[in-house]
Amino acid sequence: MHKALKPGGVLLFSENLKASGLHQSMRKHFVKWGEEWNYPTLETMKDLCSPFEEVQQSTGGFLGAFGRTNSQRNALAKMDRAFDRLANSSQRYICFGVLKKAI
Asked: Is the pLDDT of residue 90 over 90?
Protein backbone atom coordinates (compact mmCIF):
# COMPACT_ATOMS: atom_id res chain seq x y z
CA MET A 1 0.00 0.00 0.00
CA HIS A 2 2.75 2.40 0.97
CA LYS A 3 4.81 1.76 -2.16
CA ALA A 4 1.84 2.37 -4.47
CA LEU A 5 1.21 5.91 -3.20
CA LYS A 6 3.00 9.03 -4.33
CA PRO A 7 4.59 11.18 -1.60
CA GLY A 8 1.76 12.96 0.23
CA GLY A 9 -0.74 10.44 -1.16
CA VAL A 10 -3.74 9.38 0.89
CA LEU A 11 -5.30 5.93 1.16
CA LEU A 12 -8.83 5.30 2.44
CA PHE A 13 -9.39 1.71 3.51
CA SER A 14 -11.88 -0.69 5.01
CA GLU A 15 -10.95 -4.27 5.90
CA ASN A 16 -12.75 -7.22 7.46
CA LEU A 17 -11.01 -8.25 10.67
CA LYS A 18 -10.55 -11.57 12.42
CA ALA A 19 -12.98 -10.23 15.07
CA SER A 20 -14.50 -12.28 17.89
CA GLY A 21 -14.54 -16.03 18.38
CA LEU A 22 -18.23 -15.95 17.48
CA HIS A 23 -17.46 -14.27 14.14
CA GLN A 24 -14.71 -16.81 13.41
CA SER A 25 -17.00 -19.74 14.19
CA MET A 26 -19.87 -18.39 12.09
CA ARG A 27 -17.57 -17.77 9.12
CA LYS A 28 -16.20 -21.29 9.38
CA HIS A 29 -19.70 -22.80 9.26
CA PHE A 30 -21.65 -20.40 7.04
CA VAL A 31 -19.23 -18.65 4.65
CA LYS A 32 -17.80 -20.75 1.81
CA TRP A 33 -14.41 -19.05 1.97
CA GLY A 34 -14.46 -18.44 5.75
CA GLU A 35 -11.65 -20.88 6.56
CA GLU A 36 -9.51 -19.90 3.55
CA TRP A 37 -9.71 -16.10 3.73
CA ASN A 38 -7.08 -14.12 5.59
CA TYR A 39 -8.86 -12.00 8.20
CA PRO A 40 -6.17 -9.81 9.81
CA THR A 41 -6.03 -8.95 13.49
CA LEU A 42 -5.87 -5.39 14.77
CA GLU A 43 -2.18 -5.96 15.51
CA THR A 44 -1.57 -6.95 11.87
CA MET A 45 -3.41 -3.84 10.69
CA LYS A 46 -1.23 -1.66 12.95
CA ASP A 47 1.86 -3.26 11.43
CA LEU A 48 0.57 -2.67 7.88
CA CYS A 49 -0.14 0.97 8.68
CA SER A 50 3.19 1.64 10.42
CA PRO A 51 5.12 2.95 7.35
CA PHE A 52 2.68 5.85 6.95
CA GLU A 53 3.29 9.31 8.36
CA GLU A 54 -0.32 9.82 9.43
CA VAL A 55 -2.66 7.05 10.55
CA GLN A 56 -6.32 7.51 11.46
CA GLN A 57 -7.82 4.11 12.18
CA SER A 58 -11.00 2.91 13.86
CA THR A 59 -13.14 -0.21 14.18
CA GLY A 60 -16.84 -0.85 14.02
CA GLY A 61 -19.51 -3.45 13.70
CA PHE A 62 -20.38 -6.58 15.59
CA LEU A 63 -23.95 -7.62 14.80
CA GLY A 64 -24.14 -6.52 11.15
CA ALA A 65 -21.96 -9.40 10.03
CA PHE A 66 -24.66 -11.90 11.02
CA GLY A 67 -27.33 -10.66 8.60
CA ARG A 68 -28.06 -12.96 5.65
CA THR A 69 -29.95 -10.37 3.55
CA ASN A 70 -29.40 -6.66 2.98
CA SER A 71 -32.44 -5.75 5.08
CA GLN A 72 -31.20 -7.93 7.95
CA ARG A 73 -27.71 -6.44 7.73
CA ASN A 74 -29.15 -2.91 7.69
CA ALA A 75 -31.29 -3.58 10.78
CA LEU A 76 -28.37 -5.18 12.63
CA ALA A 77 -26.08 -2.31 11.62
CA LYS A 78 -28.46 0.13 13.33
CA MET A 79 -28.22 -1.95 16.52
CA ASP A 80 -24.42 -1.96 16.13
CA ARG A 81 -24.27 1.73 16.96
CA ALA A 82 -25.39 0.96 20.51
CA PHE A 83 -23.55 -2.37 20.71
CA ASP A 84 -20.21 -0.83 19.67
CA ARG A 85 -19.98 0.73 23.12
CA LEU A 86 -20.06 -2.77 24.64
CA ALA A 87 -17.73 -4.60 22.22
CA ASN A 88 -14.02 -3.82 22.42
CA SER A 89 -11.99 -3.10 19.28
CA SER A 90 -10.68 -6.66 18.91
CA GLN A 91 -14.26 -8.02 18.81
CA ARG A 92 -15.42 -5.77 15.97
CA TYR A 93 -15.27 -7.01 12.39
CA ILE A 94 -14.42 -3.89 10.37
CA CYS A 95 -11.29 -1.75 10.48
CA PHE A 96 -11.41 1.48 8.50
CA GLY A 97 -9.24 4.51 8.23
CA VAL A 98 -7.13 7.03 6.40
CA LEU A 99 -3.38 6.70 5.79
CA LYS A 100 -1.09 9.42 4.48
CA LYS A 101 2.36 8.89 3.02
CA ALA A 102 5.09 11.36 3.99
CA ILE A 103 5.95 14.09 1.49
From this structure: no
